[in-house]
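Subject: design request, 651 residues
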């Protein structure tokens, strides 16, 4: 008699197995992705499967479930164990006849997690840190091997984990833990993509509490953390704090100067940023109702200066040509060495590789997230922050540069500028006929001319204007004829708007007079326009420089990344000439792509190998020494541009 045919869905993998073969064993033989933490002991419930085709009662004879029991009795017991109706433990259910077995996403180690970013792509789960349940042989006077050696044997035999590095902190607790668990323990093991596995923890018995990871986007202005479940990929909480290094200098170069001019300055900045990461880890864990000690891994993305300061490397070389990095490789180390003392004491940290002296691990993370290197279409990815990281490429070739846009796009250096917090004007429209503005503020769904706006914003009031608000305001002013192509604000007579009032030797445009309500007057000044012009010229010049290198005049896709990119309207960006001319429908927003890249690196260890390889083949373009950068910068000062045609705006 031929053995029953077993087909696994959704992989389609199939094979014939003798009656009585456990489903988990069949899955392993065929290379089917079926999870297991307890090694088939019927404890962890990770191996749940259901028969997609075939008679349920014929499906499995189980040891733990007792197939001789009536079906509904099995169902009742399963429900108690948290199994969904119709599900069976793959390690206990055995093959009885031909069957198609469905492996639900929750039972796959490499399950797909839908990203929260607008692109809605997926992350395949393949975390570097996982738990493994093992039973080890008891000590035997006639076979005098140490407890650790027998634990190593068990991990190798049951899970194929060899050459395990065991820290002293785990070794000192090992004997008591093994005995407390009656020789059954749960091991937390970090298995990097490129090196020796580390035993992070050993706990008595079977442990199934959440295993957490922290993805960190360390920016020069803000630091964002995303707490992730390393088993499901779910984001359990996110938090952001200001980078306390701001007191040493607003932008990167002033921080490098601080390190150059002040003995011990770099160490000071290292200390404060490490304290900030520690505070962030505690905050995000508390917000999610989790204990920080459950965090066993962190993946960190940042620009090169932040990278060096976090690692305790003096960034002085990054402030002068040829902008040499101490290392461009990824860095994997104990998180405790970065001052993360509240998370698990043996937690690991992974810093993505840097691309060049001005193009850091944050740009690498954007590449990991947006994958321009995997596209046929020529894709321009712009991550806007205090520095803009710009990547251009496709399958054939990828180039990257960084451009010093300054903090104007984040609302700094703007007369009424502020962070995007409740009360900040974030959207602006100006009627081209009446020249009257209407706006929306963060935290309120109504426009300023909607009835109820005053009531809705009574708590926060209108407090200032954030980065996206000032960009829209300037673009709308240009479209309404309040600004000429050189960026000069017209007078009331020239524009026909009494809102354009003299302001020193120039003019400013009154957006909101909140003085009656006790709030500020919010105007767009000539200085604000100049700050935006400088920032957008730097951005555009960087993109053009990469296009020159590649010998192209147009791109097929533009992706605006960064928290700020998520809020910019493509039309307004194009009116200002921030981005090259392209069909508006080809411009998309990717949200916080660097943060998403950090999350991908955290949840999928293969992605670490992939980005390390990709970074090695990215061509770095240095804006600071490229003569054409200055030409592009000067021409880009006009709105939208002095020479380049912006045909899409005329459509
Ligand atoms: Fe753990 Fe089946 S493998 S319950």
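Subject: RE: design request

Done. Sequence follows.
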């Amino acid at each position: 008699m031929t053995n029953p045919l077993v087909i696994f869905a959704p992989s389609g993998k199939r094979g014939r197995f003798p009656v009585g073969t456990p489903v988990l064993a069949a899955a392993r033989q065929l290379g089917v992705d079926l999870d297991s933490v307890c090694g088939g002991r019927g404890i962890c419930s990770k191996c749940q499967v259901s028969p997609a085709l075939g008679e349920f009662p014929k499906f499995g004879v189980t040891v733990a479930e007792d197939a001789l029991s009536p079906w509904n009795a099995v169902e009742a017991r399963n429900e108690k164990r948290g199994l969904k109706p119709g599900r069976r433990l793959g390690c206990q259910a055995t093959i009885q006849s031909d069957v198609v077995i469905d492996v639900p996403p929750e039972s796959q180690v490499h399950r797909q997690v839908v990203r929260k970013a607008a692109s809605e792509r997926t992350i395949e789960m393949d975390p570097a840190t996982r738990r493994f349940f093992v039973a080890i042989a008891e000590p035997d006077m006639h076979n005098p091997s140490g407890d650790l050696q027998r634990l190593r044997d068990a991990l190798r035999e049951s899970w194929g984990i060899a050459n395990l590095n065991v820290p002293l902190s785990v070794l000192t607790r090992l004997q008591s833990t093994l005995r407390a668990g009656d020789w059954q323990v749960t091991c937390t093991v970090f298995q990097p993509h490129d090196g020796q596995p580390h035993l992070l923890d050993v706990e008595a018995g079977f442990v199934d509490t959440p295993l957490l990871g922290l993805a960190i986007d360390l920016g020069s202005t803000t630091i964002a953390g995303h707490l992730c479940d390393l088993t499901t990929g779910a984001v359990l909480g996110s938090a952001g704090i200001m980078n306390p290094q701001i007191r040493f200098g607003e932008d990167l170069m002033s921080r490098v100067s601080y390190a150059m001019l002040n003995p011990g300055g770099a160490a000071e900045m290292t200390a404060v940023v490490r304290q900030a990461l520690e505070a962030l880890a505690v905050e995000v864990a508390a917000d999610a109702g989790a204990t920080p000690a459950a965090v066993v891994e962190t993946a960190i993305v940042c620009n090169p200066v932040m990278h060096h300061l976090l690692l305790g490397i003096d960034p002085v070389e990054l402030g002068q040509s040829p902008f040499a990095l101490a290392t461009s490789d990824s860095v994997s180390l104990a998180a405790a060495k970065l001052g993360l003392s509240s998370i698990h004491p043996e937690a690991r940290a992974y810093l993505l590789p840097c691309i060049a002296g001005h193009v850091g691990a944050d740009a690498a993370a954007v590449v990991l997230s947006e994958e321009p290197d995997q596209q046929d279409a020529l894709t321009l990815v712009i991550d806007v922050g205090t520095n803009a990281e710009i990547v251009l490429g496709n399958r054939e070739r990828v180039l990257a540069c960084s451009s010093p846009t300054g903090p104007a796009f984040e609302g700094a250096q703007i007369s009424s500028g502020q962070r995007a917090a409740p009360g900040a004007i974030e959207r602006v429209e100006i009627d081209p006929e009446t020249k009257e503005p209407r706006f929306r503020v963060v935290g309120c769904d109504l426009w300023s001319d909607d009835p109820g706006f005053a009531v809705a914003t009574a708590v926060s009031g209108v407090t200032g204007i954030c980065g996206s608000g000032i960009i829209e305001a300037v673009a709308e002013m240009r479209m309404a004829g309040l600004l000429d192509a050189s960026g000069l604000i017209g007078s009331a007579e020239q524009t026909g708007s009494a809102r354009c009032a003299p302001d020193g030797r120039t003019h400013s445009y009154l957006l909101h007079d909140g003085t009656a309500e006790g709030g500020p007057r919010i105007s767009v000044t000539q200085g604000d326009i100049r700050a935006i012009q400088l920032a957008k010229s730097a951005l555009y010049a960087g993109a053009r420089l990469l296009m020159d290198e590649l010998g192209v005049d147009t791109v097929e896709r533009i992706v605006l990344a960064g928290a700020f990119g998520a809020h910019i309207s493509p039309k307004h960006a194009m009116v200002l000439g921030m981005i090259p001319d392209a069909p508006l429908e080809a411009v998309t927003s990717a949200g916080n792509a660097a943060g998403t890249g950090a999350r991908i690196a955290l949840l999928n260890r293969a992605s670490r190998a992939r980005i390390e390889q990709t970074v090695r083949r990215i061509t770095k373009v240095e804006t600071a020494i490229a003569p054409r950068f200055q030409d592009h910068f000067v021409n880009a000062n006009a709105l939208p541009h002095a020479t380049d045609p912006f045909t899409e705006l005329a459509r």
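Residues 246 and 337 are 23 Å apart (CA to CA).
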